[in-house]
Amino acid sequence: MTQSRWLRRVGLLVALAAVYFIAGKLGLGLAFVNASATPVWPCTGIALAAFVLLGYDVWPAILASSFLVNITTAGTVATAVGIAVGNTLEGVAGAYLVNRFARGRRAFDRPQDVFAFTVLAAIVSTTVGATVGVTTLAFTGLARWAEYGAIWWTWWLGDTVGNLVVAPALLLWAAAPRLRWNRAQWIEAGALLLWVVVVGFTVFGGLFPSRVKNYPLEFLCFPFLIWAAFRFAQREAATAVVVLSGIAIWGTLHGFGPFVRATRNESLLLLQAFMGVTSVMTLALAALVAERSQVEERLRQLAVSDPLTGLANYRQLTYALDAEIKRYQRTERPFAVVLLDMDGLKKINDSHGHLVGSLALCRVAETLFGSCRAMDTAARFGGDEFAVVLPETDDAAAWHVARRVAERVARDGEKPPLSVSVGVAVYPRDGDSLETLLSAADRSLYDSKARRRAKAGVH
Q1: How do beta strands 335-342 and 385-390 pair?
Q2: Which residue, 223, 285, 312, 430, has fewest beta-carbon neighbours within 10 Å?
């Protein structure tokens, strides 16, 4: 087993190195200001995602692949080693800062974490690779000191946008690799992808119906990125940015789009600055939408659940009863309501304190959770009263459930010992409305409680 895990780890490192090498060769193919400095460097995002997802011990794969990319492109062994060390340290530093201050893999869950990721991983840590790399080139004579600033700016911006565009997509897809969409969502996702591609080629690919192919139409991209952020999630928004970025780079290199300038390097620098800002805004908006959805879900849960026990509250109970009454009108299948009253809660509170009393209520709730079907609704009916709605259940089955719950409460093994009294009502036999049904269950409960007291008095 240990050997198998070791082999899988080695295979993972080899695959990582291969992906990094291929991406690096593609990136250095766009190095115009210096053979080792490119404004398009996806490897930074790959390395950052690898360190965050797989741990810092993947550094040999990053170091080796970075060395191979540079030694097979331009420079000497010394420059390739220096650049590889800088790229590796940059990735380690970025991952440490993200893990320490931006919640690591969850860096895109909240807008504040997105901005922390931007500052720490995209702006701060990337200065390491750019500074070490350009300084190495200058000391070895492969770059003139007079060009240090221009080369450094190109190098840093390429690394920055790699972290802003590539790393988020990798981290988000690794966190949620499965697509749990229904048919309508698949259709909408396909439409979104199609429109991103169409708009991307219209703005950056020369499809705009005019002889002039450099109109400043980049604003047309934003509605579709907003669409991704609002209708899907951070993962899809990051993917839309990656697709748009790829189209924009291709089009800009072919002379199309609003960022085409006198030189290719200048054109790509402007484009990358635009894509970096676009990515940050899109990810922050997607995080804000997701955070709002989570807050709304928590509020919805609070509105229908009891805050102490986690069971449904009275409002949700009445909703479930109303739904079952309407179901009966369609199917004529009866349902039952079980009421449970915890015996001696006041005595427990007086003898052991209200905290123990609250824990006692939670013990009953846990028993209900473990005794109910997925289709049943268990609720806290009042202070020490509980109710269970049992769809498609007759009188005998309902009493069986009620007695089973009572037995499990009495045998839960915790102190102080608990007991519950139970009552059952069946719709429509015992009541043809919500109020009459609950009243019938309440009478049944007190009849049961009276019988227990009478039996206890006899003994």
Answers
A1: antiparallel
A2: 223
Which residues are CB-neighbours of 252 under 8 A, at least 6 positions away? 204, 259, 260, 267, 268, 271
| Three-state secondary-structure class, residue 454 | helix
Residue 356 and residue 235: Cα distance in Å, rounded?
45
Please choose, from the candidates 45, 119, 59, the residue with its C-alpha nearest in 3D space to the C-alpha of residue 89.
59
Dihedral sign, Cα of residue 164, residue 166, residue 167, residue 169 = positive
Element (H, E) at 411: none
Chain-centroid distance of CA 54 in Å reads: 18
Cis ω for the linkage preceding 177 (within 30 of 0): no
Question: Could you list the pLDDT tens digit for every one of the 459 residues in the chain?
Answer: 477 888 888 999 999 999 999 999 999 999 999 999 999 999 999 999 999 999 999 999 999 999 999 999 998 999 999 999 999 999 999 999 999 999 999 999 999 999 999 999 999 999 999 999 999 999 999 999 999 999 999 999 999 999 999 999 999 999 999 998 999 999 999 999 999 999 999 999 988 888 888 999 999 999 999 999 999 999 999 999 999 999 999 999 999 999 999 999 999 999 999 999 999 999 999 999 999 999 988 888 877 888 888 899 988 999 999 999 999 989 889 999 999 988 888 888 888 898 998 999 999 999 998 888 889 999 998 788 999 999 999 999 999 999 999 999 988 888 898 988 899 999 999 888 888 999 999 899 888 878 777 776 644
User: 90 and 120 in contact (C-beta within 8 Å)?
Assistant: no
Report yes or no: 161 and 119 within 8 Å, Cβ to Cβ.
no
Q: Is 343 exposed, middle or buried (0-12, 13-18, 19+ CB in 10 A)?
A: middle
Q: How far apart are the first and last CA of the chain?
A: 64
Peptide bond into 216 cis (omega under 30): no
